[in-house]
């Protein structure tokens, strides 16, 4: 019977494997390895091999599974990064940068959105204009 910490450990190993899926699928779909450091993943693969060897030596099941997940995922990333290293990356045209504070380009940050020339009436209002809340940022991007 597995203990609660062993179950948690296997769940963590599963989460670690799931965390690799977006990177691997991006590499495969885009056929582009821009931004992937092959050297970093080579070191990561070596580290995974060494720690998994130790886990096997001490019969630590959770860490054997975690190491296996990391070895497979890292090897896949290295394989696709190497395969697509000289492939040009096709990307959609860049859209103009958007400000998160709801202001138009050229408008001062201390001016409320849509009202050029009028500044905030209190220090508290100035704070909220300069540092919008997450809700204000979402509304500004709609």
Briefly summarize what is shown.
The chain is mainly α and 142 residues long. The chain has 2 domains: 4-83, Up-down Bundle (Monooxygenase), CATH 1.20.1280.290; 98-142, no CATH class. The protein is built from 5 helices and no strands.
Write the layout of secondary structure elements.
Elements: H1 4-30, H2 38-57, H3 61-83, H4 123-130, H5 134-140
Describe the structure.
This protein has 142 residues and is mainly alpha-helical. It has two domains: 4-83, Monooxygenase, CATH 1.20.1280; 98-142, no CATH class. The protein has five helices and no strands. It is flat and about 55 Å long. The N and C termini lie far apart (52 Å).
CATH class of the largest domain equals Mainly Alpha
Question: Count the strands?
Answer: 0
- How many domain regions? 2
Tell me about the biggest sheet? none
Q: Which CATH architecture of the largest domain?
A: Up-down Bundle
Terminal CA distance reads: 52 Å
The helix count comes to: 5
| Estimated share of beta-strand residues | under 5%
Which value, in Å, is the CA radius of gyration? 24 Å
| Structural class label | mainly alpha
Mean pLDDT score, rounded? 80
> Strand-and-helix sequence, N→C?
HHHHH
Shape: flat
* Helix fraction bin: 55-70%
Poorly predicted runs are none
CATH topological fold name of the largest domain: Monooxygenase
Key features?
single chain, about 140 residues, mainly alpha, Monooxygenase, flat
């Amino acid at each position: 019977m597995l203990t609660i910490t062993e179950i948690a450990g296997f769940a963590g190993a599963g989460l670690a494997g799931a965390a690799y899926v977006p990177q691997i699928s991006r590499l495969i779909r885009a056929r582009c390895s821009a931004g992937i450091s092959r050297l970093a993943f080579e070191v990561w693969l070596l580290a995974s091999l060494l720690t998994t060897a130790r886990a096997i030596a001490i019969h630590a099941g959770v860490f054997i599974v975690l190491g296996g997940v990391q070895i497979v995922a890292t090897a896949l990333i290295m394989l696709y990064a190497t395969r697509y290293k000289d492939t040009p990356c096709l990307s959609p045209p860049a859209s103009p940068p958007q400000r998160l504070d709801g202001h138009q380009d050229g408008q001062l940050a201390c001016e409320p959105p849509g009202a050029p020339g009028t500044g905030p009436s209190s220090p508290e209002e100035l704070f909220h204009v300069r540092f919008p809340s997450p809700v204000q940022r979402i509304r500004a991007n709609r």
